[in-house]
Specification:
Blueprint: E1 2-7, H1 10-26, E2 31-35, H2 38-42, E3 46-47, H3 59-82, E4 87-91, H4 94-106, E5 111-114, H5 127-133, E6 136-139, H6 145-150, E7 155-157, H7 161-165, H8 172-179, E8 187-191, H9 196-216, E9 221-226, H10 229-241, E10 248-252, H11 255-261, E11 264-268, H12 271-278, E12 283-287, H13 291-300, H14 308-313, E13 320-322, H15 328-340, H16 342-359, H17 363-378
Parallel strand pairs: 1-2, 1-4, 2-3, 4-5, 5-6, 6-7, 8-9, 8-11, 9-10, 11-12, 12-13
Helix pairs in contact: 1-17, 3-4, 4-5, 8-11, 9-10, 9-15
């Protein structure tokens, strides 16, 4: 079996690993080709382009990269039409993948989209385009199923693979030992994002916030897991240039270990907020974009929340300080309040436990069910 895949960022690569594992349970010799990150490549997926080419967020930022993105998509369409896979799976990145999927579906290639496009948060007008582009959706959030079924789109709830991989009960002391941290004293995790564009907006903000927290909680320790060498360098630059920056332990990868060890975390909105919730780490969510991108996003948004834990639980469990609200002073104040209030931290942890149970499912089984439905629909 040959499977075409396109993942656009680190979170998609992690989901792609689960996809490959599931399909190979039934098709042990299955081959995967398209755009893949290091996790998928470690399982033998062949990447025709670096995944980082697709890792762009924000309207203004995408416009700058648009010529390259359009060229890559045209070339992928030509490649897959010339060498048709038995199945194509677009992993998230709907603005890139839906058009690609539409061309392949029209050519008779079964198409799946993994991670439902966020019509529940904005862009409900996407529904007709989604229906034309895919034979089915693999959904990681249970509340999405009735929304897409009502629009006549086949959808399979696969649970969230992270909810299976991350244990429900976290041993924080063991995690600290793993990282070489002392067993007591507050630990603050700093997760500014996985994209270069996110570090450009967040690195100095996160370091300046840590500086203010350190002034008020002098014995606090700070740890920042960065996804690769380049993002680590950008964060290290911020540490050198922000006045009174505290000592921050920089790691490449190991975000799960850091979140498991931390008392609180400052997290850029995205998949990392879900990881923090599943690892039962109380957090403050933030995000900054260009002024124009933020204005456009607000005009198109309908959801009352930005962070995934709040969206999934449909309640303001985690503080969200976005754009102009995201100042070092305000972020530090919220983090210090969390550090000083064990009752509030415990309430947040209990909410995260509910979230974990909500997302727990047999992802491998769900993926195979979705694959079977897509293949039947295209037959």
């Amino acid at each position: 079996m040959r499977v075409g895949v396109v993942a656009g960022e680190a979170s998609g690569d992690a989901l792609g690993v689960t996809l490959i594992e599931a399909i190979r349970m039934r098709y042990p010799d299955a081959e995967f080709e398209g755009i893949a990150g290091p996790g998928m490549q470690s399982l033998g997926a062949h990447s025709l382009y670096p995944m980082e080419k697709l890792s762009v967020r924000g309207y203004v930022e995408v416009l700058k990269a648009l010529p390259v993105l359009l060229r890559i998509r045209r070339e992928l369409i030509r490649h897959f039409l010339a060498h048709p896979p038995d199945l194509f799976v677009g992993i998230d990145a709907p603005d890139f993948n839906l058009t690609l999927e539409k061309h392949l579906k029209q050519a008779g290639i079964p198409t799946l989209h993994m991670v439902a496009p966020t019509v529940w948060a904005w862009r409900a007008n996407r529904m007709p385009a989604i229906r034309e582009s895919v034979n089915g959706i693999l959904s990681i959030f249970p509340f999405e199923k009735p929304i897409f079924e009502q629009a006549g789109i086949s959808i399979t709830d696969i649970g969230h693979p992270l909810a299976q991989r991350i244990p429900e009960h976290i041993d924080r002391q063991k995690a600290r030992q793993t990282l070489g941290l002392v067993p007591d004293g507050p630990v603050v995790a700093l997760l500014p994002g996985s994209r270069i564009s996110e570090l450009e907006y967040h690195a100095r903000l996160f370091v300046a916030t840590a500086a203010q927290v350190a002034q008020r909680v002098p014995h606090a320790r700070f740890v920042a897991p960065l996804i690769d060498v380049r993002t680590r360098e950008l964060f290290a630059d911020a540490l050198r240039t922000v006045p009174d920056a505290p000592v921050v332990q920089l790691l490449e990868g190991r975000a799960h270990d850091v979140l498991a060890a931390a008392d609180v975390a400052l997290v850029a909105s995205g998949t990392a907020t879900l990881e923090a919730a599943l690892l039962k780490c109380p957090m403050v969510i933030t995000y900054k974009l260009s002024a124009l991108t933020a204005w456009l996003a607000r005009r198109r948004g309908v959801s009352g929340f930005v962070g995934l834990p709040n969206i999934i639980l449909n309640q303001p469990v985690v503080p969200e300080l976005i754009q102009e609200q995201a100042t070092p002073q305000a972020l530090a104040e919220n983090l210090v309040q969390l550090l000083n209030d064990p009752v509030r931290r415990e309430a947040m942890v209990q909410a995260f436990e509910r979230l974990h149970r909500l997302l727990h499912a047999d992802s491998h089984r769900g993926i195979l069910q979705g694959v079977d439905k897509a293949l039947r629909d295209a037959a």
